[in-house]
Fold these 2 entries.
Entry 1:
Amino acid sequence: MLFNTFIFYIFLAVVLIGYRLAPGSRGRAWLLLAASYAFYSYWDWRFTALLALPTVVDYAVGLGLGRTVEPRARKRLLLASCAVNLGALAMFKYFDFFVGSAAALGEAIGLRMDDVHLRLILPMGISFYTFKSLSYTIDVYRRQMEPTRSLLGYALFIAFFPNVVAGPIERARNLLPQLGCLKTASRRQVGEGVVLIALGLFKKVLIGDASGRIVDNLFGQAELYASPELLAGILLFTIQIYADFSGYSNIARGVGRLLGLELMQNFAQPYLSRSFSEFWRRWHISLSTWIWDYIFNPLMSATLRRVGRLNLSSVQAEMQIAYPIVAMATMLLCGLWHGAGVTFLLWGGFHGLLLTLERLAVYRGKTIPMRVRIRGTGDLLRFIGGWVTTQILVSFAWLFFRAENMGQAWYFIEQILHWQGSDLTGRFAGMTLVYGSVVLALDQIEYRTGSELYLLRLRPAVAAAVCLALLIAVGLYMATTKPLPFVYFQF
Amino acid sequence: MRSVKTFLVFGLALMATLVGLDVYLQLAEIQTPMETRIDQRLGPTYIPNKKITRFTEGFFIGSANAYGYMGPSIPPARSGLERRVLLLGDSFVLGHTVLPRHYFGRWLEARLREVSGEVYHALNFGKADFNFWNMYQYYKDFAGGFDHEAALFFVGAGDLIPARQIATDLYPVVRLDGDALVIDRSFRNSRTFGFYKTIEPIMTNSALLRLMFNAFKMVKRGELASVVLDRFAPKRQESDEGPDPGTPPQAVEMPALSRAILRDLARDPRNVLVIQRSLAKELRDEVRAAGLPMIDLGACLDSLQAAGQDPYYWPITKTHGHWNHATHPIIGAYLADQLIARGLVRPRESSESRPEEASSPK
């Protein structure tokens, strides 16, 4: 059930009515749990077992960790949780990729391997709920939170329908306490929810889906298109993936508000970033903070400990060795999280390289503030230079993310380098410019007002009218066009 | 008083936002406004130079030309040594599923140029939902006025035996008056025509109204339940496998009107009937009896199918529909070879080209 289909809003209306009528917090929790499993089953009921598995295992591991003080036993419990969660992820998402890669490597050195591909369907959202569940056991292991005693609450945390298939990858610390005392939404929350849903649908449907239709054609049969069209394809995908995913996150958060829950922000105007580290603080925040907390920081500490044995002259020298290794490893894992394929690895590796170069060569360890302060021409030129460079390289990296394979990515690059115009250059350039301008304008408003809920700063009648107009336009488009699934659903 | 003011503010903000969204939809070419206007003589015709973008099973970005048909602006009168082939038919001929440079007409031009050594133009007079009767009317009223060497009428069996003429309230109608073929333009007196004329200025300028119109058509087709209820919608009987490329209907008796049109077209040796899919023997005999030359695309499409390529399958949207990208060049080259074989195009004497290879239209 996609957020950009009418059936979802019928489902949501039924859930909201039931939620209002349900007796007490426990009644609401049961209702939401049933709704969440129904939501997930709509795609394929058999995979609900995969939702139930981390629920039961990590709930039990959490309780075990709460009762155990002996470090080794605690570590064993954590490893059990990791084995179950990552085992399922590995089997469904990575098994075929690694077997295929091993077979290709074997063939290269003259070994033949039998076809042992599992060809399993990737369960929707498996990477998201796996990470969500893992964060809980790690937090409990680190004693950053108390284990939950409520299996119902934990099951709902894992399966919660607004964010089960594509995030935000909510932390148990934030969501579990809210799920423990479910209340109906206040008037303010209802208003915020409607605004978030309207803006999210606009982004998803009228920017993401609309540009995605062109992107699908350009990437689907790239050999039919000329250089300007292929370049437009990369830029349009840059726009599509942001509008699609941030639109989804807005809708998820909006639905959360209608249920009286606050889900974390997932995007903060990433395409206004003027450096790569800033981009990663603004893009897919729930994933980047997850990676920061659970992969980057532990890896960095471990690496620094080892580098420390080298007796280098300064801490800075240690950082210059440790940071590239860790940044690259982390971003490669980030790429692999997105998809089992060489193109995703390359996308991650490219970002790792950019982060490293930026850290070591440009900013030398300085953190770039999230708010821009331009005090003179020099600042302005630095800002423009940083923004343009960042956005060009980020867009280039998206090519690898979207390409079906390395051959296709290379084909795009080759065609663009051997530029040949087309009679449709103007049309494609015009469309790209319009989509890009709208995305940047929306981000600018968000940035200036410091809120995604900027519409609520207008008069209530104006805000309501804008939301209604957005919903009318989106509704008409949805009624007449086949919906496109969210790009991140495949992860 | 306060509530009136609030209501006014709400209304104004709603209108302003809708106008803004309309402009966005048009500039980003997400939805183009209605690209046809109702002509007093021809019925709905493309607005000259109107930009058109279509997302169907394929993808089209192009525009109508200055004369109100698809493709490059080629005037009715010949300007030099160029030669022309007119293409008349329904949405298959219109080709709003591929970019203009991938259209079979471009491949046809390229192949003819290669073989004859002369500049050829294929003029696209295709129109969605047109049947044989509509094509005839359009040819007589408009397309036939363009100098040409050949006029190809693309039909499926359903086009020769149409259940009815399309939108008779908006289009001229061909009928038999005794033995004579008459084009009846009484549509200009219909209420629908009056209504369309009234709303034309906004329909041809508003993308949102076009979307609304599309939604209305979707409801009229009975698709509302499946759009809204998705899997819970009651199952519909007919399968939606895209347009019908001309599956022979049960009834094979040629209507008198079709027979008369065939006879009339046969008077001009430049006219050729192109069969999109094999016709029933009875219909084929009727066409032969009328004396109108025929080109059957059936063999050409079957050869594609035999080679494991479905000419109607669109891998990106995973749907069946019009001819796909792989089919357009084959159709273009096949038509060119058939025109040469029928003597409608003379190959240059020292031609070294091989008939099985069509050059690219680029």
Entry 2:
Amino acid sequence: MPTTADRRVQIKGIREGLLVTFGEGEWSELRTALLTYIQEQAAFFKGARLAIDVGNHVVHAAEMGSLRDRLSDLGVSLWAVLSNSPVTERTAQVLGLATRLPSPRPERPVRRGDTELEGENAVLVQRTLRSGYRLSTRGHVVVIGEVNPGAEIYAGGSVVVWGRLRGTVHAGIEGNTAAVICALEMAPVQLRIADQVAVIQTGRRRKTEPMMARLENGQIVLEPWKGK
Amino acid sequence: MVAKVVTVTSGKGGVGKTTTTANLAVALATLGQKVVCIDADIGLRNLDVVLGLENRIVYDLVDVVEGRCRLRQAMIRDKRLPELYLIPAAQTRDKNAVSPSDMSRLCEELRPEVDWIFIDSPAGIERGFRNALAPADMVLVVTNPEVSAVRDADRIIGIVEAEEKGPVRLILNRVNPNLTRRGDMLNAEDVLELLAVELIGIVPEDENVIISTNKGQPVALDGKSRAGLAFQNIARRLMGENVPFLNLDSGDGFLKRLTRLFRSGGTMG
């Protein structure tokens, strides 16, 4: 496959055909560069399906239409125009062009009914975390098992332990003050939520009640974990 | 014969790894088993002293690994128990003189010759421990009823699990029933609850262990002391016998409760 020496126009193969990406420059220059390139490599481009990513350029309907016609003359069919500009996107849609590449996992999921929730990313750990184990994630953490003293969990979100929590947990590592820490049995070495640190006093007699730690007025508070 | 390789380890130092290794090896040899123990604590060797074989060392583990002698030449035979051998550690080298694959190769060579290979691991989780763990078929984790020893045992069990070695069996050593009864020592049930591994023996605190260690005469040579009896029981459990746990306490102490705990578990060998 030919590569473009001209850095203003980059072409790569994608599942749906070819994807052209425009760099900086005047629209007319970019358009000319693309057409010249296609003419030079006519044999390669013959019958190709082209998607163009115009980036921040605002392309008006007349320009887009004429480009499509010109490409058609060269035996290339334009089927999609990707753009950061809503105006250009609408223009492309009016011309019957696609404005998104189909992807197996769309970046923005299709809007569904209000009763369907997207959920958030969480890591599920179905084992006991022994001393020296360390779990670090930007999402939430769910542990089915024990968290022993000497084990550490660092989560961007909340941490739920379905078992005994006796290690160290830091929820909301990136400053998420809404993060909570829940455990069936709360006897941690230390708890941290966002930038707050709490040392939990646990007596000899353990409370076996499920507990939840959360931030309230900038302080970590511990309370019975009850359904809401 | 295809030997079973048993690594004795603890993480923390001073909990009784070497004493346990020596006594289990002696107890198994007393039961007619052919046993080799390997001291993997290169640079800080002890097992030879505890077994009373220090003055017989000519070649050591590093000599075998570096090819200065044959394996047979480094195996010191115990005169009291003709089926008990020791491969001592080098005292003048360090842990890096041996690699995990050296240990595995050595054990493969020994396996057809004996019934049991006991490896006395050094404290810590570094190279020496990795060496001792590499050939293991079973890992005996020795701990004391103290928070720091239990914490290290947990770490060790975690590493053993991560390396997919095992099974792990726990030996709770130096248990003092009086202290436990008064609540001054960690409760054995708490230890088991935290570590969640199968217990294979409880060894009571016993001054006979110190006396015998200094003499180079492991307590398990005779079952007269409580600790000696406890080690003999562990040896029999290793052989697959179902031996009840010692009742160290006359009242309704924790050991009694523990014994019940076990029987309900029903998997003790």
